[in-house]
Amino acid sequence: MQPTQTLLVTGGAGFIGGNFVIRQIQRGDTEIVNLDALTYAGNLDTLDSVEDHPNHNFVLGSIGDSALVDYLLLRHQPTAIVNFAAESHVDRSIDSPEAFIQTNILGTFQLLEAARRYWRNLADDARNRFRFLHVSTDEVYGSLGPSGRFTETTPYQPNSPYSASKASSDHLVRAYFHTYGLPVLTTNCSNNYGPFQFPEKLIPLMIHNALAGRPLPVYGDGSNVRDWLYVEDHCRAIERVLEAGTPGEVYNVGGNNELTNLSVVQALCDLLDELCPDSPHRPHRQLINFVTDRPGHDRRYAIDAGKIASQLGWVPSETFATGLRKTVRWYLDHQNWCQRVMDGSYRGERLGTGTAG
Ligand code: NAD
């Protein structure tokens, strides 16, 4: 099948970007230019299955490198840019916020500028078709009390350097629509989980520790509430917004799965008890260990995903129970992927596979 569209995907060696790239390549009708700086969160192992596919072009580089992005846009003439590239871990943003400002704010700004230069010189048809889709988070909206849900018009109240940097990038994206007419789309999504997630995030960290019989650290009393979405459902939502979203609009994406952190960890423990009947660490719940809470820890996030459902017909396919089971099975079947992250061997040895174009 000949590709009918070309996407410049940024951050496509990360968790969500990697799942998105693999899905697009499997579809067969899409050529991908995958620009990733391969920070600690970028992992070429994730892209093993598409590494040699003719529709996949991996490029090692930063969204902040204007000359490189200009070159890639001119050479590949993408129909859209999908911006996943970011520093994404809240705890790291508390310890060292600077990289978050550099990539999430300045990097997005440079990418928008490159997109604007490219888009304004396109012929009419290509100009009308072009989209800039910015992938963002529900964390920009701040923290909720026991009731209510974030809608697309909830005021921004970010509380961590991570969410503040994403909020800032969202504002820039919005401004490029209102000021220059750049056809942007923004998605604000809740917590993702699924294959290929770096084991510093809650679900893969807990699976990794539980399998090794190590403590399962839960912040505070574990009562912070998050909404959880299986990563493939998020990728389908992005696809749908790209296809049918209205330029300038924001779409909230969520899984209708509000759970406390403690209940997520307990559900994982119970699944591991079932799927690893010979484990010496059963019952895995005995490994749960409450630790000092994160500073500024938001209490509750909840997404109202009614707009994307009613306007674009997207709803999640997985419940938390089915998505979590798939995820745990994936980590059990891919312990080598996790091990190579934990011992650092995923970094460095294959950087030579990146090309400059
Ligand atoms: P991730 O940390 O797993 O991946 C980020 C990727 O971006 C990595 O491959 C990294 O190498 C790359 N990158 C970092 N700086 C770069 C730069 N300057 N230029 C090019 N590439 C760069 O993140 P993720 O969890 O896959 O999240 C992807 C996007 O989705 C982020 O923008 C994040 O804010 C957003 N998001 C994530 C979640 C979630 O639960 N993980 C939820 C909602 C929104």
Structure description:
The protein has a domain at 5-196 and 228-259 and 299-318: Rossmann fold (3-Layer(aba) Sandwich), CATH 3.40.50. With 357 residues, it is an alpha/beta fold. The strands form 3 sheets. It has a 7-stranded parallel β-sheet with strand order 3-2-1-4-5-6-10, with helices on both faces. Helix 1 (15-27) crosses helix 8 (231-244) and helix 9 packs across helix 11. The chain has 12 helices and 12 strands. The structure holds nicotinamide-adenine-dinucleotide. Residues 10-11, 13-17, 35-39, 41-42, 62-64, 84-86, 88, 103, 107, 135-137, 166, 189, 191-192, 198 line the site of nicotinamide-adenine-dinucleotide (NAD).
**Structure summary, number of beta strands:** 12
End-to-end Cα distance, whole Å, is 23 Å
What share of the residues lie within helices?
A: 40-55%
- How much is the radius of gyration in Å? 20 Å
Q: Which cofactor or ligand species appear?
A: nicotinamide-adenine-dinucleotide
Rounded mean pLDDT is 95
**Sheet with most strands:** 7 strands, parallel
CATH topology of the domain at 5-196 and 228-259 and 299-318: Rossmann fold
CATH superfamily of the domain at 5-196 and 228-259 and 299-318: NAD(P)-binding Rossmann-like Domain
SSE order, as H and E?
EHEEHEHHHEHEEHEEHEEHEHHH
- Please work out how many helical segments DSSP would assign: 12
The strands making up the biggest β-sheet line up spatially as 3-2-1-4-5-6-10
Highest CATH level, the class of the domain at 5-196 and 228-259 and 299-318: Alpha Beta
Instruction: State the shape.
Output: globular
* Strand fraction: 15-25%
The appropriate CATH architecture of the domain at 5-196 and 228-259 and 299-318 is 3-Layer(aba) Sandwich
Structural class: alpha/beta
